Amino acid sequence: MGHYQKSSTRSLNNGTAYLKMRKMSLVELVLFLFTLTSLVGLVLIFLFVIKESLPIFLKVGPLPFLFGSIWQPTAGKFGLLPLLLSSLILVAGSIILAGPLGVALAIFMVEYAPSYVRIGLKTLVELLAGIPSVVYGFFGIIVIIPLVRNVVGGSGFGLIPGILVLTVMIIPTVTAVAADAIRVVPKENRLIIFALGGTRWQSVYRGVLPAATRGIFTGIILAEGRAIGETMAVLMVLGNAPLLPRTLNQPASALPSQIALDMAYASGDHRTALFGIGLLLLIFSALFISLARRVARSAA
Amino acid sequence: MNPKIEVNDLNLWFGRVHILQDIDIIIPANQVTAVIGPSGSGKSSLLRCFDRTNELITRTKTTGHIVIDGRDLAFEDPLDLRSRVGMIFQQPASLPGSIYENVAVGPRLFGIRDRRKLDVIVEESLTRAALFNELKDRLKKSAGALSGGQKQRMAIARALALNPEVLLFDEATSALDPISTQRVEDLIDKLKSTTTIIMVSHNMQQAARVSDHTLFMNVEEDGAARVVEFGPTDKIFTNPEDEKTERYITGRFG
Ligand SMILES: Nc1ncnc2c1ncn2[C@@H]1O[C@H](COP(=O)(O)OP(=O)(O)OP(=O)(O)O)[C@@H](O)[C@H]1O
Ligand SMILES: [Mg+2]
User: How does residue A12 score in pLDDT terms, banded at 50, 70 and 90?
Assistant: First the structure.
């Protein structure tokens, strides 16, 4: 009995009471300052982008700015619809492809592959996630664009290679998050199905996937966040014509790549309009992250 | 006493490790057989031989025969066999989804989709598991909210939904409170009339209380597990033949 009491008070001291009663140590102070700095930095970025983009919203008006169908800064026309639609098509297209593929890869990795294959695939996924996006752009130009040119015709540049390059880029994100979600499902979920006479696929489909749904969707949403902000690779394959997308096989321009293309020389209203695009992207990624949070937190 | 399962000269290896050695037993039909023995004495491995789930672990090898109702397991379809041999695990676990879906999952695996058929099966299985009245108003609610004891009885209902001939309990009450344990024991006593039950237990009182026959297993010096003694529970617990059995059941073992 005595031993039990002693160990229980000790564990209390190591837990919450410890933090409350002791003064902050040096390490904790440094960590706290770092946290504070990044928080302040984030708020400042937001405020700065709002301040810089405010004139364009006041001058053109928020609705004509967001939904105007002509982007022609030299003629004083600042309608974002062509860029906005292209970006949405890129995100939607790449998710439709990368979602199922990434999840299938995660299922195969965790539930089917023998351990040496699993380790190889895991390394490959991590490697793919770490490749700079310019390299994906090269891949797009060298491999995908000639392919598109041969199959559907035209220059090859445009939304189709954009979607395909983004798909390859975000599969690692989907796969990594989905694989983690699948891996933490208790082994009982599989055993229950096996013990009833289920096949391996049934153990995945009935025992594992329902328990991993939230994690899988979190991965897909995070990947969408990455896709909408992706600049370089997309810029290299889109053909960069800010036209309203009428077919998938036409040159286009997306929100982030337009900023990268114009920022070096833009001035005046054009410059503030680019900051307006930046604000839009910030809001999109905030939305995706809060959505991912909500999905991750919502009850099963 | 009708034999239900005959085990002849069963040996089991995981990789190169000899796990079970020369198991020769006859499990009587419609009775409760308790399997006792120290940790690592192959009790769970033996149970998994009866529904062939050892095969899901890579690199296992079995020799010898297990015959249920005159049919050698080696020649049966393992999925079909598992539907006829239910297993209840130690950890009370539920699948995501409702109580109803948790019980209906077995029949669904075998292609039963008709709602009315499933309704009947779910109600019957929960009734047999003495759980229907307790849960009938919340069948569509999440099973995750059930208590450990309720989850364990739901697991029994889930197994019963496939109408198994044999039920295997692997320390199914060791994570439960005394009242839930009592309920499961009562249930085992009731299910005897329709199924053959094999239960692993670390609780000697429970084995003595619930079972008709007791199998004592032990690991020998060479690392493989063997049957030390198998007989009527009364005899094993009052007048064991082997001195190791006596030491184990009186808690003076190793
Ligand atoms: N998946 C596995 N791979 C390799 N060896 C295993 C595996 N599972 C069990 N073993 C080994 O088989 C032997 C018997 O284990 P088993 O789980 O059958 O014992 P048990 O009597 O059920 O023990 P406990 O009372 O602790 O549950 C042990 O030596 C164990 O280490
Ligand atoms: Mg065990």
Answer: very low
Reported as a pLDDT band with limits 50, 70 and 90, residue A8 is very low
**Full set of structural domains in chain B with CATH:** 3-249 (3.40.50.300)
Answer yes or no: are the C-beta atoms of B9 and B2 closer than 8 Å: no
- Of A279, A267, A188, A69, the closest CA to residue B95 belongs to A188
Q: Which two tokens stand for residue B155?
A: 């697991």
Q: Inform me whether the pLDDT recorded for B254 exceeds 90.
A: no
> Are B166 and B68 within 8 A, CB to CB?
yes
d(CA A214, CA B170): 31
Structure tokens at A2: 């005595």
Q: How far is CA B82 from CA A27, B35, B162, B187, in A?
A: 57, 20, 10, 21
Supply the mean pLDDT for chain A.
Answer: 89
- Percent of chain A scored above 70 by pLDDT? 92
Radius of gyration of chain B (CA): 18
Residue of A nearest to B80 (CA): A197
User: pTM surpassing 0.90?
Assistant: no
Ligand 1 centre from B44 Cα, in Å?
7
CA–CA dist B62, A130 (Å, integer): 46
Question: What is the DSSP code (8-state) at residue B2?
Answer: -
Other CB atoms within 10 Å distance of the CB of residue A137: 20
Q: How far apart are the first and last CA of chain A?
A: 41
A197, B79: Cβ pair inside 8 Å? yes
- Separation of alpha carbons A117 and A108, rounded Å: 10
Distance CA A105, CA A266 (A): 43
Residues of A in contact with B89 (CB under 8 A): 188, 191-192, 195
Per-residue pLDDT tens for A184-203?
999 999 999 999 999 999 99
ipTM value of the model?
A: 0.95
